[in-house]
Design goal:
The chain has about 140 residues and is mainly beta. It is built from 2 helices and 10 strands; from the N terminus they run H-E-E-E-E-E-E-E-E-E-E-H. The chain is rod-shaped, with a radius of gyration of 28 Å. The chain starts with 11 loop residues before the first helix and ends in an 11-residue tail after the last helix.
Length: about 140
């Protein structure tokens, strides 16, 4: 069996035909090999790669956190769930969405989380109690 030439052995004109780099548009990730080579038998090496839509990481809310179902960063694959929550002492505003999903359109569902100081913490921090006038010894 004849040995296959390496890329360095191929003339420049043949190299363009023999080597197929796979380019990925911004906002997508590639699954599979990033290139394919035309083999002596006329077939391409490897398996055809696929492209998957991704969403950029969300901005972490002030006084909040985001936990993703995918560890891939900084672009999350379609279907990734982002769970947003507020830190202790803060509560989400009524218009915020706790769970968001990366869609095929490369956009996150729902709305950004806004965390506001909890009313309980506000009253505890600003209210003083004077019990001397109500209780006598």
């Amino acid at each position: 069996m004849e040995a296959l030439p390496t890329l360095m052995d191929l003339p420049a004109a043949d190299l363009l035909i023999a080597f197929l780099p796979i380019l990925v548009t911004n906002g997508y990730t590639i699954t599979g090999e990033g290139f394919r080579v035309c083999q002596n038998d006329g077939t391409w090496s490897g398996t055809a790669p696929t492209c998957q839509a991704t969403c950029p990481d969300l901005t972490v809310p002030t006084n909040g956190v985001i936990i993703y179902s995918s560890s891939t960063t900084p672009h999350r694959p379609r279907g990734t769930v982002a769970t947003q929550s507020c830190l202790n002492g803060y509560v989400p505003s009524t218009t915020s969405t706790a769970t968001r999903v990366c869609g095929a359109d490369r956009l996150w569902s729902g709305s950004a989380l806004t965390c506001q100081l909890s009313p309980v913490y506000v009253s505890m921090g600003t209210t003083t109690q004077d019990c001397s006038s109500r209780y006598s010894p």
